[in-house]
């Protein structure tokens, strides 16, 4: 139970969502929000925030997806739940669109790996 960060990335031309990933559960620790220069108050469960270059170094360690601002537009949301739904894996879940490259699909870890379950969606 606790705080997770949702990273979403969008095609720069079409502005369509390409994927999303949830971070691990931070519990009640909001220090990552403060590290981004934001107050915790009024920023949890309050929509998405555009990711700028000065946020990448703080956010990247929490995600498998490599943040490439030159390729995608990104938003993060800070989500708190008393109880998160149980998933097959305790690791973050990544969702890819069918538009991802073959190389990205080949690099996707298997569901049995220590990383997240990758789900392709239409």
Automatic annotation (TrEMBL):
<protein>
    <submittedName>
        <fullName>Cloacin immunity protein</fullName>
    </submittedName>
</protein>
<dbReference type="GO" id="GO:0030153">
    <property type="term" value="P:bacteriocin immunity"/>
</dbReference>
<dbReference type="InterPro" id="IPR036528">
    <property type="entry name" value="Cloacn_immnty_sf"/>
</dbReference>
<dbReference type="Pfam" id="PF03513">
    <property type="entry name" value="Cloacin_immun"/>
</dbReference>
<dbReference type="GO" id="GO:0015643">
    <property type="term" value="F:toxic substance binding"/>
</dbReference>
<dbReference type="InterPro" id="IPR003063">
    <property type="entry name" value="Cloacn_immnty_fam"/>
</dbReference>
